[in-house]
Amino acid sequence: MAEQYEEDAAMEQVFKFHRENPRFSPDTIRQARSGLISPDQIVLSTDLDVKLPPGANEQDFVDNIVPKIKPHMDKLQMAHMRFSVWPELYGKSNMSKEVEPHYQAFHQDILEHDAVWFKYIFHEDTTNADHCTHAVGILGTYCTLLRQRNDLEDCGKVMDTYTKVVHQLQKMSHPSRCNDAIRMNTCKVLTYKYFMIRINLGYQLGDKPMTVEAVRHVVGYEQELLGDVEPGAYGTGTAGDYQKLFLGKDLTEWRDGEIWSIIKKLNKNNVHRLDVSECANCDKEEKVLHYLQKEFKFCAGCKGSKRVMYCSRECQKDHWKIHKILCGDNNTTNLDVITFMNIAEPLIGMFAEQVLNKSVPESEKKALMPGLLKHMKTLLASARYKECRDESELMETDFLSVVCRYLSGKIMR
Question: CB within 8 A of 131, min separation 6: which ones?
């Protein structure tokens, strides 16, 4: 099943965000990870701001209704703690087996106490939309967790609840009730993610109408959130993932059968990200997603799913002096060739401009690249770095400093 974002890659982005934007002190994180602070000891600050029914006595509501609501809010609190701060505080995925019971308990509570949740907590006139926003994130994650496990029956049940809560958030965030631009934009982003999840679930269920409808909504939200992008404008604008599939033709012109055929083709090819491919030599981009129209060719010597591509045989020949260092069995590191090159390629120019205040011509960058790649390979084989398996792990070491010292000696000559 093709995922819009693979779980590992998505969680790595979460971990990276929290490293760059910490909410907890290093000491708190250390205590949490050493078991000195349990998850249930952490209380997230959120107001118990719920809907006061018309004509109700405020004091009576506080004395009698709020105590009835609090146990349900506690379920949300426990689930949200695992969903929100689990990655940062404990360094674990918010889709791990440890957190699932809390998602399950929260969802079950909504099913059993529907009236409480939708009358008081998720009511569209409630001024605080945080509860509904948190619930949408939790239920979307729970849906994805169940679907990836192929537990489609339970996933469908959670999707029904998820849909109801998303609709409530949309009502809360409607311009007639809300003038908070941040809340309205948050609602659009969460609704966009909701339809992304429906695409994957719809395909897995073989539900063509559900999948096609979700694709149409997703493209609409991408156009609204990111703007329309003209065909061939990838270098100058930003297209959404599904927008890329339909550039050059208005989506209203596509028949349901054509959209369903494209989604099936993506899944058949196990496409995890809808990225338009670039030539490894000249950076030219394919006009259409590779798996729909094979304009560029993979390097035959590369292994795995992350292989370099070329727009022409001439570009492949021109790039061979650099690429042969990492092609196939020559890449003896734990990094795939794409990740390796994504780290190496910007280094020469960035280091020269930002540290040495010097501009390096493209011809010189190309001449320096083979030596840089060989040096990086040697470093990555050493005991100090050989356990690093991705860019984020390398960034937590002194790897870049060591590489930059090497570049300093080469560029200053």
Answer: 46, 50, 73, 76, 121, 122
Which residues, 6+ apart, have CB-to-CB distance to 156 below 8 Å?
A: 201, 205
Closest CA to 120 of 53, 182, 176, 60: 53
Three-state DSSP class for residue 279: strand
Interatomic CA distance for residues 85 and 359, integer angstroms: 43
Dihedral, CA of residue 99, residue 105, residue 109 and residue 112, to nearest 10: 140
Q: Which residues contact 290 (CB under 8 A, 6 or more apart)?
A: 276, 277, 296, 309
For residue 168, report the phi and psi dihedrals to the nearest 5 degrees: -65, -40
Residues composing the chain: 413
CA atoms of 224 and 119, how far apart (whole Å) = 31
The structural domains of the chain, with segments of one domain joined by +, span 7-268, 324-411
Q: How many CA atoms lie within 13 A of 213 on its CB side?
A: 8
Can you tell me whether residue 263 is helix, strand or coil?
Answer: helix
- Integer Cα distance of 123 and 131 in angstroms: 10
Question: Contact at 8 Å (CB) between 174 and 132?
Answer: no
Q: What is the pLDDT of residues 63-118, one digit of tens each?
A: 877 788 888 988 998 898 888 877 777 677 788 888 899 999 999 999 999 998 99
Provide the token pair at 13: 């982005």
- Contact between residue 230 and residue 237 where contact means Cβ atoms under 8 Å apart: yes
Find the DSSP H helices in 118-180: 130-148, 152-172
Coil/strand/helix, residue 143: helix
* 275-279: Cβ within 8 A, 24+ apart: 276/234, 276/244, 277/309, 278/309, 279/309, 279/310, 279/311, 279/312, 279/315
pLDDT tens readout for residues 207-253:
999 999 999 998 888 888 766 444 333 333 344 567 766 655 677 77
- Phi, psi for 271 (deg, rounded to 5): -80, 120
The structure tokens 């799913």 sit at 305
> Structure tokens of 359?
């501009």
- Are 324 and 330 within 8 A, CB to CB? yes
